[in-house]
Amino acid sequence: MNKTIIAALVGASVLAGGCGTVLREVERLAVRTSPEPSIGTATSTTATTATTAPQGTPGAGDLKQAARAALGAVPGSTLVSIETEENGRLWEVQVVGQDGTEHQLDVESGKVVGGPTTEEEDAADKAKHRARVSAAKLDYAQAADKIAAAVPEGRITELNLDTEQGKTVWEADVLAPGGTKHEVAIDAATGTVTRNNGATT
Length: 201
What we know:
Blueprint: H1 3-15, H2 20-32, H3 39-52, H4 60-73, E1 78-85, E2 90-96, E3 102-108, E4 111-118, H5 123-135, H6 140-150, E5 155-164, E6 167-175, E7 181-187, E8 193-197
Helix pairs in contact: 1-2, 1-3, 4-6
């Protein structure tokens, strides 16, 4: 392969911040690119791919990264809600402190960009939060893994700790590769799937 093309490929991966996904894409293009195309064409295609490649999709990996950032900003807290906004660029996260106080944060690219802001709630609301957190034996990461297994290759766009028919559950919205939206719920104590609307049989 022409040295100019290789340099452009390497440069594109460096400009992309060393992102593993982009680097893999650049390496894939390097293998697939034949020596016949002109230098300008190959460089232009590579640069476009590197700069327009998404920085991540709202799957379990990005969800967990955003969750860790939010939990790190409020030590001792427990995540109770996380939802992707702005086409996956931003995550809106709610965590509950040990006293039951709820905090909201915005996370982008694994960094807190807004908050934490404290929700003004009364003692009853705080007690409800503490009870729900206490009843959940699975944390957000374990719940995300169970939900991902229920909808293979799906992208989790929202995950909430809630109560359903008297049970504490993790509820999630999951977008399947074909575009089908699944509403999944799992028992927060046992990890059993209690609902999976939209699944194909």
